[in-house]
Write a structure and sequence with these properties.
alpha/beta, 338 residues, globular
């Protein structure tokens, strides 16, 4: 009998270990991907006049910035894109600052809304304006730049009442061969911000925002995230590493409370494919909470890093809805509250 009990207990222990072996990863996955609120579902409401005008403005920006390859390898076009951004921001009434690096070949471009009563924990909203290789870069990342330009315009009236700094930053050198190196524009900027001692509430990286597809099966994910998220590529995603989980959750909750547009969100370790593929990586390296807002790029967009990534491929009406939702989040101050 004693031998039977020993064998029985051994089987129970083995069974418990097997259950734990499967349960712990599942629990961890659910913890990483859990976000508050509920994604908008159903038909989108008719476009407002504001959204129609905004869609037209977004398209003009993309056509101006991303009509040709623009990066260190195409310096004249790179300079034209930078000057377009600077001229547009100045036209909105901002004082434009630049941060040159890489022996002056590249520059970050920044404008800011600053409170009158001293610095506070800032919100940084950024987008890279270089394209990859020989791609025009309409979606990657003309769409992000256009969205950031329009957010700067739409939020400019907060200048007299902003409670904490809001920094709009256009980064150079996000694409290879500079990606995740010391010559990446966002890396240069984030390190300078860290060295200044300024507190940062969080950073949004606007990355490939303009492509949507209503066909089932149009959306893909790195393993094992496909088990949890929809397979139709008609949403916007809020993505970060696990170190920024709280900021991701607050951003998703604030967007879902204010925007009638499908959304997903979640975090994962940096080794999961695609999780740190943007400028939010640089801010996390500097110790700041950060996330990427994206249409998920190559997991949905077939022209990623392609010469076919042209302005006619984007859905500006839906991009306008996303930008309107992000404006509402920033204007509400939801992310500035502890």
């Amino acid at each position: 009998m004693r031998l039977w009990f020993r064998a029985h207990n051994a089987r129970l222990i083995a069974f418990a270990l097997v259950v734990a072996l499967f349960a712990i990863p599942v629990i961890a996955l659910l913890w990483m991907t859990a976000v508050p609120g509920k994604s908008y579902a159903g038909p989108l409401s008719p476009r407002t006049a504001k959204e129609t005008e905004l869609a037209q403005r977004l398209r003009r920006h993309v056509e101006a910035i991303a009509r040709e390859p623009h990066n260190i390898g195409h310096p004249e076009a790179f300079e034209r894109s930078a000057r377009y951004i600077e001229t547009t921001l100045a036209g909105f009434g901002y004082q434009v600052a630049t941060q040159r690096f890489d022996n002056g070949r590249a520059r970050n471009i920044e404008v800011a809304l600053l409170p009158d009563d001293g610095p506070g924990p800032s919100l940084v909203i950024g987008a890279h304006y270089d394209s990859a290789f020989s791609a025009p870069g309409a979606n990657d990342n003309g769409s992000g730049v256009a969205a950031l330009l329009e957010l700067a315009r739409m939020l400019a009236d907060l200048k007299a009442e902003v409670g904490a700094p809001i920094r709009f930053v256009f980064f150079a050198n996000e694409e290879p061969p500079f990606f995740q190196t010391d010559y990446m524009g966002s890396r240069v900027y984030a390190e300078r911000l860290r060295a200044s001692g300024e507190k940062v509430r969080g950073m949004w990286s606007l990355e490939t925002l303009g492509y949507y597809d209503d066909r089932p099966g149009s959306q893909h994910y790195p393993f094992p995230l496909g088990w949890l998220y929809p397979d139709t590529g008609n949403f916007i995603a809020f993505v970060g590493t696990t170190g920024s989980r709280d900021f991701v959750r607050r951003s998703v909750a604030a967007f879902r409370a204010r925007a009638a547009f499908p959304s997903v969100g979640g975090t994962a370790p940096g080794f999961v494919q695609g999780i740190d593929w943007s400028d939010h990586w640089a801010f996390e390296q500097a110790g700041f909470p950060a996330l990427m807002i994206t249409d998920t790029a190559p997991f949905r967009y077939p022209r990623y890093h392609s010469t076919a990534d042209t302005s006619d491929k984007l859905d500006y009406a839906r991009l306008a809805r996303v930008v309107t939702g992000l404006e509402a989040v920033v204007r509400s101050g939801a992310l500035q509250r502890p």
